[in-house]
What we know:
Helix 4 links the parallel strand 1 (58-60) and strand 2. The chain has a two-stranded parallel sheet with strand order 1-2. It is built from seven helices and two strands. By secondary structure, the protein is mainly alpha-helical. The longest helix has 18 residues, at 115-132.
Amino acid sequence: MGESLETALDSMVKPYAAITEYRTKWSGITEELMNGCNIRLEQIQVAVLRQIHDQTLLVGHSLENDLKALGILHGRCVDTAQLYPHPKGFPLRSSLRYIAKKYLHASIQEDTHCSVEDARVAMQLAQLKVQKGPDFGSNADIA
């Protein structure tokens, strides 16, 4: 687990529609942050697609939401929401905050949401799963 956890890309994207609710507690986004943002979706799509190719492994938590927002399809994803299933089973999902606390003993998203922190924690959880084996963090390890 000694790999670098450097941020490859982290950017705000200015939507075409007016923002009526920032949901700062969950998004980490404030009006002040968005005031200086002039990057549009198409620019981020290009930036992402310049960094990945068909064999790139994407790691994250509930990645389908991010990919849907980006309008990008990708076939090689490691999703911590699936690696660490909810104790009550599908369709429920454990939050990243919960599985970080349970398996990494780390507190995240205490005051606000930070996308970089979430990305690092998701990678650490994926690495932990590889290190400990397929049953670690699954409902099978508590049965």
